[in-house]
Amino acid sequence: MQNTFINLGIIITYILLFVAVLSALLFPLIQTFSNLKAAKSGLIGVGAILVVFIISFLISPAETGPFYDKFGISPTLSKAIGGGLFATYLFFIGAAVSIIYAQVARFFR
Description:
2 domains, mainly alpha, 83% helix, extended, 4 helices
């Protein structure tokens, strides 16, 4: 009897988790596509982030070597890891530059 309640609780939890994930993905999409004019700046930002990731992936080298072979890292995975690191560096530099620019602009006002 006790196992039945535990199994029922787990099944209900999975169903509610599925509904929550579906709602978290579906409602923002509905809101975005119902008013594209208001969502334009957000979509431009997402597009810019995707462009940075794509460019980072494309310029990343596909290195291989004993370390990569030891852990089973393929050249494609190596390229993806390098691209992710390069994109992270670019975003960090962009954030630092924007903070410095904001402080300098405020100083001269």
